[in-house]
Amino acid sequence: MFERYKKPEYFLILLAAAGSFAFSSWHTLLNNFAVEQAAFTGIEIGILQSLREVPGFLAFTTVFILLIIREQSFALLSIALLGMGVSITGLLPSEYGLYFTTVLMSVGFHYYFTLQQSLTLQWVEKERTPLILGRQSSAKSVASILVFTGIWVGLDCCK
Question: Which letter, b or e, does each residue of 27-48 get, where b requires 16 or more Cβ atoms within 10 Å of its Cβ?
């Protein structure tokens, strides 16, 4: 029954949705959390956003890491780092805690999304690649909409 869904393309679509779900959650909730729980001002938010971009600048190191670890394993490790960084953010409501979780999340985010297209081009037949890349993009959008709707409903119910 589920044999149809054991194709790599479905796994890639699921990972794309998971990455977008995690990042959208973090990005949407972070500023209010940082101000209300960690007493961030504009300076700390600026530092946090600057730290968030450092792994993006270092994403070129993907090539060197791939000399040590398989691309598939690296993608799974990256998505796990993204999820871990997002999930422990609320447990560390301090300046350095948020800096740490942001860098952790950002490392996972930047490395995963660097690898995503490459894995798609490797695992999916050439004729189906545009379709699967489009489905990944759709899955990312749906995941973001679900996050935004969930946060909106959650905040509306808690008033």
Answer: ebbbeebbeeebebeeebbeeb
